C-alpha cells in the first residue's frame, strides 16, 4: 500500500496532462512512494488513448466519469485512492521535482491539518489586458498566503495544490456536490475553519500554473456565471459569511438600481444573453483601440451580468437570504499580558485558539488581534508576525516623519504596497516583473520584437 495518492481531475487536456505526469515521474530521489490517480471527467479528446499508452515508473490508475465537474471528480478519486495522504492537483499545473516530498514533509512536521502549495503563473510574455489582470491576481494571492504568520480565510483555500489525510477528507464528507463547478474549494475551506482544522503553507510544494493556456476572456464570463450560482448557494448554506460574498450587495437591498439589476438578471436573460455573448469580442476591439476606461466599464458590466444570471438560477424571483446569525454573536476577547514573555503568550494562543485577543504589556495596550469572519482562529504561529506588523505600523511612520523633516505628531502614511514590501521581500520582485510585462506590452521596441520572434 502506498503512503500517498496524487489525485488529478482532468477534462480534455491530454497534452498538458502528459507533461504533468512526466513531471511527477521525475520527482527527486528520496520521495516517498506514491500513486497517481487520474479522473478523466467527460474527456472527448485522446486523453484515454494517451493514458493507456503512457509508460511511467509511478503507479498510474485511471477513473472515468461522464462530466460531473471537478468537485465530484475529486470526491470520486478519493473513494478509490489507496494512500493515507491525498494530494489534489489540477491538470494545468506542472509540479516541481520536490512537489510530493514537500507535501509529505509538511504533514510529518504538523500532522492533522491541511497543506497548500503555491502554483504561481508560469513565466511568459503577456500583452493583453485580461491576461495581465489574471496573472496579477494569482501573483497577489500567493504573495499574501506566503507571508509568515498569515491567518488563513476560507477564500485562501484552493484545491489546485492541496493535501490532507484521507481520513480527514472523508470525515469532512469531501467537497459539497452542490458546488460542482465553482467555489467548491471556498466552501470546503470554510468547513475546515469551522471545524478548527489548521491550514499551513508549504512553499517547496511548488507547481507552475499554465493559466495562459487554459483561461480565456470567454471562459471568465462562464466562470462568473458559475460563481454567481455558487455564491447564492453559499449564502444560503453559510449565512454567517454572506456579507463577504458579492451577492450580498444585491440581495435584500432597496433602491431603483438594485431592483432593476435583479429584474434584468431574473427576467431578461432570453433577450440579453445573445447580446452579452458578444462581450469578449467587444472588449478585444476596445483594447485594440486603446480605450482603457471604456474597456474596464464594459468588462465590469459583462462580468456582473453573468454573475447575477448565475445567482438568479438559485434565487429565482425571491432575492432574500437567511438572516445573518453572526450579527447577534458576542465574540469572547482573550486578554493576554506580555509580562510573562512572548513564549508564554504563544502557549496561551496555541491552547485557547481565540477568535479575538487583546494584547497588553503591563498597563500599555499593544494592539488587538481582531476577529475576522470566515478566518481561522488565532494561533501561536500568528503571534510574532502580528507583533512585527504592529511595530512597523506604529514606529516606522514616526521614523519616516523625522527623516522627511515633518512633525512627529503627523507621521507619513504607509501604503499597503510599502507594508507588503517590508514584510515580504519577494513581493517587490513580483511587482517588478509585472511592471516589466506592462512595459513590454506597451513599448514594443524593435529589440523586443526580435527577441519575442526568436
UniProtKB/TrEMBL annotation:
Keyword annotations of the record: Transferase
SUPFAM superfamilies hit by this protein: Nucleotide-diphospho-sugar transferases
One Gene Ontology MF term: transferase activity
InterPro entries per record: Glyco_trans_2-like, Glycosyltransf_2, Nucleotide-diphossugar_trans
Domain Glycosyltransferase 2-like: 5-119
Domain of life of the source: Bacteria
PANTHER family per UniProt: GLYCOSYLTRANSFERASE, SLR2126 PROTEIN
Protein's name in the database: Glycosyltransferase
Species this protein is from: Rhizobium phaseoli
Amino acid at each position: 500500500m502506498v503512503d500517498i495518492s496524487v489525485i488529478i481531475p482532468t477534462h480534455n487536456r491530454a497534452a498538458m496532462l502528459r507533461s504533468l505526469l512526466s513531471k511527477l515521474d521525475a520527482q527527486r530521489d528520496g520521495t516517498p512512494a506514491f500513486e497517481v490517480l487520474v479522473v478523466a471527467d467527460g474527456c472527448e479528446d485522446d486523453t484515454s488513448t494517451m493514458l493507456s499508452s503512457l509508460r511511467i515508473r509511478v503507479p498510474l490508475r485511471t477513473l472515468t466519469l461522464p462530466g460531473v465537474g471537478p468537485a465530484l471528480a475529486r470526491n470520486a478519486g478519493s473513494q478509490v485512492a489507496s494512500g493515507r495522504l491525498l494530494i489534489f492537483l489540477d491538470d494545468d499545473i506542472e509540479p516541481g521535482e520536490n512537489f510530493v516530498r514537500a507535501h509529505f514533509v509538511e504533514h510529518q512536521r504538523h500532522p492533522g491539518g491541511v497543506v497548500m502549495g503555491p502554483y504561481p503563473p508560469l513565466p511568459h510574455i503577456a500583452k493583453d489586458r485580461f491576461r495581465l489582470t489574471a496573472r496579477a491576481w494569482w501573483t497577489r494571492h500567493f504573495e499574501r498566503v506566503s507571508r509568515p504568520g498569515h491567518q488563513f480565510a476560507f477564500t485562501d483555500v484552493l484545491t489546485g495544490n492541496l493535501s490532507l489525510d484521507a481520513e480527514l477528507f472523508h470525515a469532512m464528507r469531501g467537497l459539497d456536490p452542490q458546488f460542482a463547478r465553482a467555489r467548491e474549494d471556498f466552501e470546503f475551506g470554510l468547513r475546515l475553519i469551522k471545524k478548527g482544522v489548521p491550514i499551513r503553507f508549504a512553499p517547496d510544494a511548488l507547481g507552475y500554473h499554465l493559466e495562459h493556456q487554459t483561461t480565456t476572456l470567454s471562459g471568465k464570463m462562464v466562470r462568473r456565471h458559475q460563481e454567481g450560482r455558487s455564491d447564492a448557494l453559499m449564502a444560503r448554506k453559510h449565512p454567517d459569511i454572506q456579507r463577504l460574498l458579492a451577492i450580498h450587495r444585491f440581495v435584500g437591498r432597496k433602491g431603483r438600481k438594485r431592483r432593476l439589476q435583479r429584474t434584468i438578471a431574473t427576467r431578461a436573460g432570453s433577450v440579453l444573453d445573445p447580446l452579452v455573448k458578444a462581450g469578449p469580442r467587444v472588449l478585444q476591439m476596445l483594447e485594440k483601440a486603446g480605450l482603457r476606461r471604456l474597456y474596464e466599464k464594459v468588462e465590469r458590466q459583462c462580468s456582473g451580468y453573468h454573475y447575477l444570471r448565475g445567482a438568479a438560477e438559485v434565487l429565482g424571483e425571491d432575492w432574500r437570504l437567511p438572516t445573518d446569525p453572526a450579527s447577534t454573536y458576542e465574540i469572547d476577547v482573550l486578554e493576554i499580558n506580555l509580562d510573562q514573555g512572548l513564549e508564554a503568550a504563544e502557549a496561551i494562543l496555541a491552547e485557547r485558539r481565540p477568535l479575538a485577543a487583546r494584547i497588553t504589556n503591563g498597563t500599555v495596550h499593544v494592539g488587538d488581534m481582531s476577529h475576522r469572519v470566515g478566518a481561522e482562529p488565532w494561533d501561536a504561529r500568528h503571534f510574532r508576525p502580528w507583533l512585527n506588523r504592529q511595530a512597523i505600523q506604529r514606529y516606522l511612520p514616526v521614523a519616516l516623519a523625522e527623516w522627511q523633516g515633518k512633525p512627529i505628531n503627523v507621521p507619513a502614511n504607509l501604503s499597503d504596497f510599502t507594508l507588503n514590501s517590508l514584510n515580504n521581500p519577494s513581493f517587490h520582485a513580483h511587482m517588478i516583473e509585472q511592471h516589466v510585462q506592462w512595459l513590454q506590452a506597451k513599448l514594443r521596441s524593435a529589440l523586443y520584437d526580435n527577441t519575442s520572434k526568436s
